[in-house]
Amino acid sequence: MVATAVHVKNRRKDTGCCSLPFLRSLMVVFNVIFWMTGLTFLAVGIWALISRHDYISLLGNNTYSATTFLFLSVGIIIILVGFLGCLGALHEIRCCLVTFAFLLLVIFVMEAISGVLAYMYESAIREELARNLNQTMMEGYGFVPAITKAVNSMQRDFHCCGADGKDGFQDWRYSQWTAMDTTDNIVPDSCCISPSDGCGVSGHPSNIYLTGCWESLELFLKSHLIIIGGIGLGFCCLQIFGIIFACCMARKIKEAKDFL
């Protein structure tokens, strides 16, 4: 009789906001949201990587690429870890929930790092471009295929020419490409407003973009990095709730097993 009363008393405790059924539902809802954040990370990472990917070769270091690939990795890991969380919640597997909580902590750190890296690099991008862009363009164009492709894409996309200032097109006078070029072009054809073979000649200055590309590339990269940083730091807070939910449910499962 006493045992029955104790059993009923403990069973009544397993109701409300701390009950296993409630925590199970909470974990399922969390994992649906978790998967959505994973897809967001994947989408933003792919967008940042393939959106004018050529420009990356014009940067002086690999911070932008590293941040983007870290973003992609986080997205893939989130999707995989989400299945583990659902499995542990639906079948009340304590070891799965504990592992899930640990992996959420790892994801939290990765998201925070990607966000901090993005914001740190966003503040340093101006100095890096000022230091490296002109030299990279003037020495690499026409000799390094990746740089040649990147410069042509940048000048066409941003409607600019050369690296610096309002008269950026004059930078090409001092380039290795001009020194070695056998045509009459004073700028690459990608500088032309109406592109055609041999359009970058001195006889048609009105058909040439005059402004340098430095500021346009800076704004482009900063906009990407701000989005990456905001999502990385914003979504990392979500993992804290997941860790709390998973730990609460794991503890509840342990208490239920100890009672039995």
Automatic annotation (TrEMBL):
Alphabetical list of InterPro entries matching this protein: Tetraspanin/Peripherin, Tetraspanin_animals, Tetraspanin_EC2_sf
Main location: membrane
Any GO CC annotation of this UniProt entry: plasma membrane
CDD domains from the UniProt entry: CD151_like_LEL (cd03155)
Membrane topology per record: Multi-pass membrane protein
Membrane-crossing segments per the record: 21-50, 70-90, 97-121, 225-250
Compartments where found: Membrane
UniProt keyword annotation of Membrane present: yes
Alphabetically ordered keywords of this record: Membrane, Transmembrane, Transmembrane helix
Coiled-coil ranges from the UniProt annotation: none
Family per similarity comment: Belongs to the tetraspanin (TM4SF) family.
Protein name: Tetraspanin
Organism: Littorina saxatilis
